[in-house]
Write a structure and sequence with these properties.
- It is elongated and about 45 Å long.
- With 125 residues, the protein is an all-alpha fold.
- The protein has one domain: Four Helix Bundle (Hemerythrin (Met), subunit A).
- The longest helix has 31 residues.
- It is 85% helix and 0% strand.
Length: 125
């Protein structure tokens, strides 16, 4: 896992949102966005795990789709890509192995959440 690449993706997305020189209001908004993702995602991933184990492709697809969008919204491209793979598989009626999939998500999520905390603190300034 390349931390600098992940951090660069997140920072690039924040530049897309707030511009090159965001003011205090934009910085506060971006920090809230990052913290909201960090607060909500672990529970949503836990729910995805339940759905993976439950075997309902439509429910897995919908949950993975929502997570994919949230991750993309903050610039977590690799994490978003994992959710996209799950969504695609579920759309095809295939439920990925829950333990393997959650392991991949967990490793990437830990990396991203650590970066989000760091970047949010910087935005608070």
């Amino acid at each position: 896992m390349d931390v600098s690449t992940r951090e660069g993706e997140i920072r690039e997305r924040l530049t897309d949102i707030g511009g090159d020189d965001p003011g205090a209001a934009e910085r506060a908004l971006m920090a809230r966005l990052l913290r909201s993702f960090a607060a909500k995602t672990p529970g949503a991933v836990e729910r995805l795990g339940e759905l993976l184990r439950g075997g309902d492709p439509a429910a897995v697809r919908d949950q993975a789709h929502a997570l994919k969008g949230s991750a993309a919204n903050i610039g977590a491209a690799t994490l978003s890509g994992i959710f996209a793979e799950i969504e695609h598989d579920a759309r095809d009626g295939v439920i990925p192995d829950a333990d393997l999939t959650l392991g991949r998500i967990g490793a990437e999520q830990a990396l991203v959440l650590g970066l989000l905390d760091e970047v949010a603190r910087e935005l608070d300034g």
